[in-house]
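Sorry to interrupt, but I need a hand with the structure work. Could you write out one complete protein record for me, on any chain you like? Just paste the record in under my message, thanks.

. . .
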Amino acid sequence: MKLSVTGDRPSGIISLIYKCLIVSLIVLVFTFIVVTLYRVFFYDPPQKHEQTGVLLKSGEGQTFTGIGQIRVPTADPQPGIVIILVSFTYYPEDKAFSEELVLRIGDFRNIIEKYIASLSVSELQKLGDENIKAELLRRINSVLRLGQIETLYFSDFMIIG
């Protein structure tokens, strides 16, 4: 089978391939334009912060739970275990502060672990939840530069031992 080209126009099978490529290119460009217009004008997905797992809604305070559950031994000779889950409210519209919170998760965990590990079971019970929250809040806020946390919450606070 011999393919021939006459003038500037391809013939036969080459012409068919050429037409298919042109149609494919037109469909691809059209699809790109339609998808772009849809994303620009109609699509507004909820944002989910990758490390904290918190859904972000504009205009509302959200609960930051990125610190996670912490298990810490107490300072007793026979150490007890404290299981604690700390959370707080923040405003995701403040992007810089939100990013600082995510970057400081390791610092927050260290602050909580060191403070709890420095106390015995009896000292923790004597202090009570509110005093422990106040001290942790003071210590956590001391490392923050772009904002401050107003209130800490304990979803879990158990002393075993």
